[in-house]
RNA sequence: GGGGGUAUGCUAGAGCGGUCAAAUAGGGCAGACUGUAAAUCUGUUGGCUAUGCCUACGGUGGUUCGAAUCCAUCUGCCCCCA
């Protein structure tokens, strides 16, 4: 086994470790079971989760065994690190549903075994990996036992020294007892995973460092064993924005929420300064290649962006979708024709077009504007195009005269396209 | 348990009882310039059947010709004391 830890480090995945040498040693000695926790608040992960996912994938490729857990139990509490708001409490069914969606996405990158998608019955992991819900062990926890067996290992004065909590306290934000306990539960997860599956390495975002360390300590105190932790740097784009956020909200891995085309576009629009980092994180290219692409400058860097976008899209959605997205993208921005483009399409009843649809209404209806007023502004400001012809009159009515090959190509601003097809009269 | 403070649009944050759909900044969107980048400049940024109408300034109820602005009460959050 070559040294995966070095590889991860080189790619920028490592922010903090319990002890770099020991972690490297551990990973070079034999198969290591490692785990990462994922948020189960939605049915889909978004691109922010790609960092842990890719790190897990690198480790699995090196022969180690991944366990992904979703926080069915911890979601019911709310993580204090998420300072802005308490996470919504979700029902167990909801979490299970979300979990299934998330598992499907993880499986594109990892082999988590099979037969464990059923979260009601997830207490097993296969040879290659596993997917667990921490509700399995947290829900049955007895408060008094928990205090006695787990709680006694935590020192409050130590806990409040942790950055996350300290900030909360110093900035006078307040911290509920409920939130305060989050750390114990997360630590308990690690202990359970160590006991049942021999898990010896936990990975997570750097904001989780305190919680993860608590788990490391707990295992040492209860079992007298040394387990490890590695955190990832928290990604922001060069312009300071949170990774994976765009105007339309988060960039999801689910094709239903974020189409492969939009997904591709997100990566194409990467800030120049981020290209090389992102190639290291989000593709499997050897570092030599990453460095080569990352060193491109000025216009040539678009080549690197295209490679990045294609690769990431292919990983998330498969080759077919990636090809389609790339073709569509090239056509839309390279001047080619758009006929076979994978541009989001909406259908409109033919009779409505015969009557004529006010342009504002059309743009609003297909989702290129959030309201008619917004559509009106779009038109007035010269951002509305139909078949690449700009329309600035708000009283424009779209009817069958504008059809080209039985379709309309709408464009809002420079980048957002929507194809309109005709739907025959409804039955 | 007692006392005090605060609650505004996506966010932060102004706001004399009328001229407040609400200053300003950030963010978003559009335009110009570009490389589908960044930076910069300009415009715009609640909704609608649109020179007017509706909904909004934590909830409810009052005072008033008129309230985001005053009063009462409820709720949330914060601070001090216990």
Description:
The protein has 427 residues and is of the alpha/beta class. It folds into 3 domains: 4-232, Rossmann fold (3-Layer(aba) Sandwich), CATH 3.40.50.620; 245-334, Orthogonal Bundle (Tyrosyl-Transfer RNA Synthetase); 345-423, RNA-binding S4 domain (Structural Genomics Hypothetical 15.5 Kd Protein In mrcA-pckA Intergenic Region, Chain A, Roll), CATH 3.10.290.10. Helix content is 43%, strand content 15%. The chain has helices at residues 4-10, 20-29, 50-61, 92-106, 135-138, 143-149, 156-159, 163-170, 177-180, 182-197, 209-223, 260-268, 275-282, 287-294, 301-317, 319-334, 350-355, 359-365, 372-380, and strands at 16-17, 33-38, 65-70, 130-133, 199-205, 228-232, 245-246, 249-250, 345-349, 357-358, 384-386, 389-390, 397-398, 407-412, 416-423. It has a 6-stranded mixed sheet with strand order 1-6-5-2-3-4, with helices on both faces. Helix 12 (260-268) runs antiparallel to helix 15. The protein is elongated. The protein starts with a helix and ends with a strand. The relative contact order is 0.09. The protein binds one RNA strand of 82 nucleotides through residues 172-174, 238-239, 241, 247, 265, 268-275, 298-302, 305, 329, 332-334, 369, 371-374, 376-378, 380-384, 412-415.
């Amino acid at each position: 086994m070559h040294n995966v830890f070095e590889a991860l480090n080189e790619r920028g995945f490592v922010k903090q470790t319990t002890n770099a040498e020991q972690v490297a040693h551990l990973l070079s000695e034999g198969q290591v079971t490692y785990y990462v926790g994922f948020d189960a608040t939605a049915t889909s992960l978004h691109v922010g989760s790609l960092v842990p996912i890719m790190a897990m994938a690198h480790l699995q490729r090196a022969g180690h065994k991944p366990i992904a857990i979703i926080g069915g139990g911890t979601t019911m509490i709310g993580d204090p690190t998420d300072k802005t708001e308490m996470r919504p409490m979700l029902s167990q069914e909801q979490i299970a549903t979300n979990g299934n969606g998330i598992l499907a996405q993880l499986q594109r990158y990892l082999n988590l075994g099979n037969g464990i998608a059923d979260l009601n019955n997830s207490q097993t992991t296969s040879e290659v990996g596993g997917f667990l819900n921490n509700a399995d062990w947290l829900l049955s926890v007895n408060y008094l036992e928990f205090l006695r067996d787990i709680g006694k290992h935590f020192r409050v004065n130590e806990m409040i020294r942790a950055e996350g909590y300290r900030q909360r306290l110093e900035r006078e934000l307040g911290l509920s007892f409920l939130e305060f306990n989050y750390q114990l539960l997360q630590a308990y997860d690690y202990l359970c995973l160590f006991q049942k599956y021999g898990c010896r390495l936990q990975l997570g975002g750097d904001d989780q460092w305190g919680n993860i360390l608590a788990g490391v300590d707990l295992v040492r105190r209860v079992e007298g064993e040394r387990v490890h932790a590695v955190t990832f740097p928290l990604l922001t784009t060069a312009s300071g924005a949170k990774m994976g956020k765009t105007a339309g909200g988060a960039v999801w891995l689910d094709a239903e929420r974020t189409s492969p085309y939009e997904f591709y576009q997100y990566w194409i629009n990467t800030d120049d300064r981020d290209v090389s980092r992102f190639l290291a994180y989000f593709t499997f290219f050897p570092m030599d290649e990453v460095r080569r692409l990352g060193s491109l400058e000025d216009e040539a860097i678009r080549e690197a962006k295209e490679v990045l976008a294609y690769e990431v899209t292919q990983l998330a959605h498969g080759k077919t979708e990636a090809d389609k997205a790339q073709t569509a993208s090239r056509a839309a921005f390279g001047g080619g024709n758009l006929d076979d483009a994978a541009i989001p399409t909406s259908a409109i009843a033919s009779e409505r077009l015969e009557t004529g649809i006010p342009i504002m209404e059309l743009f609003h209806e297909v989702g290129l504007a959030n309201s008619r007023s917004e559509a009106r502004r779009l038109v007035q400001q010269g951002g509305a195009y139909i078949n690449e012809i700009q329309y600035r009159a708000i009283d424009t009515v779209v009817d069958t005269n504008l059809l080209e090959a039985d379709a309309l190509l709408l464009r809002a601003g420079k980048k957002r396209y929507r194809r309109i097809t005709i739907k025959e009269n409804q039955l």
